[in-house]
Specification:
5-stranded parallel sheet, alpha/beta, binds NADP nicotinamide-adenine-dinucleotide phosphate, Quinone Oxidoreductase, Chain A, domain 1, 10 helices, 2 domains, globular
Length: 338
């Protein structure tokens, strides 16, 4: 089969090439999926760059990637099934996450075929395209885990999403709306119409407005852009409101080469959990992918989760797709299609 091969960590244009490689064979509990579309997102970029260096110790491979085929999530059609597969049959249209567990690692989605655990897949709803469905799993799981997995969800709460027009934020926004929240979305001027269209009740323009000033009070602040100070958020959180950090490193623009900015910020917050009522002990358990994927499939089928795709690149142009991602120009998700 044809696949994008990553020879080393580095600039996508230098380390990625299209190659002929062996088609994967599904193990017990896995299905082989003929990939129609695979998602291009910040964590794919991190694993190709191997940046920050500490991520290389978290499952992906220290000196070079253990799995040389990038991509963590995709949508396609089941080609064959392995032993003990009970949930899917040949010909089913599916979408899901092929990166294992909660690791920073390549998952093999940038290829014509990928083997995926049946537990990380869901049937693709008919009302969304393969490209739309492919853009959901990894961003959706991180959005769901951080929005709804930190403490029991409270319907009617007021949620502020900082960076609501990006990969994680746009799904968090729609999850929060589907579960009865009022949402204030913070974004760049050019993305305000998008976040309104996705259902935001209020919008703030980060080039002009400071979300930690003003009279609104929040039950939950989801900081995807990861630039807010906890001491400023304290001012606008209800007494029992919480602050949740995603940890965006802005494609290497913030933090050190060794640790980036996200991991040190997480560690600092973890140390302050005992002293600040607006922090909850981080939930380090991996999200249940089967439950999460079923939720996304259901919300998409009901029209409550509508992924916006900005651009589809041919598989051979995966490096260009990553350069476009890093440029920040996209108004919606980027996918590659074999
Ligand atoms: N997407 C995934 O599948 C995924 C999976 C696992 C982990 N993550 C992690 O989650 C983090 C976010 O990923 P993402 O895909 O959501 O990134 P993203 O698509 O780049 O979204 C971040 C958003 O924040 C906006 N932003 C930038 N500066 C801001 C500011 N000062 N105030 C408010 N908003 C601001 C950006 O707008 P501009 O375009 O104007 O900069 C962008 O829309 C990354 O660190 C990534 O590693 C992502």
């Amino acid at each position: 089969m044809k696949a994008i091969f990553q020879s080393a960590y580095g600039e996508p244009s230098l380390v990625l090439s299209l190659r002929e490689v062996a088609k994967p064979v599904p193990n017990r509990g896995e299905v082989l999926v003929r990939v129609h579309a695979a998602s291009v997102h910040a964590d794919v970029w991190h694993v190709i760059r191997g940046w920050p260096y500490v991520l290389r110790t978290m499952g992906g491979g220290f000196s070079r990637p253990k799995n040389p085929i990038p991509g963590t999530d995709m949508a396609g059609v089941v080609e064959t099934v392995g032993d003990a597969v009970t949930r899917f049959q040949v010909g089913d249209a599916v979408f899901g996450e092929c990166a294992k567990g909660f690791q920073w690692a390549n998952g093999g989605a940038f290829a014509e075929y990928v083997a995926v655990s049946q537990d990380a897949l869901a049937p693709k709803p008919d009302n969304v395209t393969f490209e739309q469905a492919a853009s959901v799993p990894t961003s959706g799981l991180i959005a769901w885990h951080n929005l709804m997995g930190q403490r029991p969800w409270r319907a009617g709460q007021h949620v502020l999403i900082n960076g609501a027009g990006g990969g994680v934020g746009a799904i968090a926004l729609q999850l929060a709306k589907a579960h009865g929240a009022t949402v204030t979305a913070v974004e760049h001027t050019r993305k305000l119409a998008t976040v309104r269209a996705l259902g935001a009740d209020h919008v703030l323009d980060y080039t002009r407005d400071d979300p930690t000033r003003g009279s609104a009070r929040y039950d939950l602040i989801l900081d995807v852009a990861s630039n807010l100070k906890l001491s400023d958020c304290d001012r606008v959180l209800h007494p029992d409101g919480i602050y949740v950090l995603i940890g965006h490193d802005h494609y290497g623009a913030s933090g050190s080469n060794c640790f980036g900015s996200g991991i040190p910020a997480f560690l600092k917050l973890a140390l302050r959990t005992a002293f600040n009522p607006h922090l909850v002990k981080p939930n380090m358990t991996a999200p249940n992918k089967q439950v999460g994927m079923a939720l996304f499939a259901d919300l998409m089928a009901r029209g409550q989760l509508t992924p916006m795709v900005d651009r589809v690149f041919p598989l051979a142009q995966a490096a260009d797709a990553l350069t476009y991602l890093q440029s920040g120009q996209a108004l919606g998700r980027i996918v590659v299609a074999p």
